[in-house]
Amino acid sequence: MAAPTVGTPACTQVLRILALHGYWQNEHSFRERTGTLRKNLKKRAELVLISAPLSIPDTEGQLEDPRGWWFSDPEKNSFNAMDETKCCSGLEESLDTVAKAFSELGPFDGILGFSQGAAFVAILCALKQQGDPRFQFDFAILFGGFKSRATEHAHFYKEAITVPSLHVYGDTDRVIPGEMSQELAAHFVNPLLHSHPGGHYIPVCAAQKKVYFPFLDSFRK
Hints:
Blueprint: E1 15-20, H1 27-33, H2 35-41, E2 45-50, E3 54-55, E4 67-68, H3 91-105, E5 110-114, H4 116-129, E6 139-143, E7 165-170, H5 178-185, E8 192-196, H6 206-217
């Protein structure tokens, strides 16, 4: 049998990954933003995108059908990652939406999120660890993630999360500073952290491929 070509993984499985967009996005805008990532991962992973259930009031018409996973200000139906609030709204609807995706579009090998979607992924990891049967996956990838500052979400971070995870953040990110992503990663056991010199986006350069590919290949058969 001929030896595999150098740099080509011997495994052939294409992983299925549920991808969750950031706040003020939807599955269509996120598909555009992940075009380069999906192209580079096509031999290793397929991204399945869905939209969050919460519609964001868009008085300026900046984006068609902007969506979110929860609101930190229920009265205004708005969200800010910096908000330290005692209550929020919408999380249960989002959990139901993701549970439906797992049931109807799954199974999924992993789950991926960007910004608020990454923060939501961490919550899903916590629920999986707590034994929630709705969410079954092997790994998580979090881009520009952060820890929810809502008091009612505090219980998600009480137990160290053992789900294998990759945390990617930008050194010059002014939306979600790298420190916030590192704070979230600290709640995971043996997280893999990767920083890039850019801002609030999903990087796909040579340096990132050297991180993404081995991480994904470790779950392929």
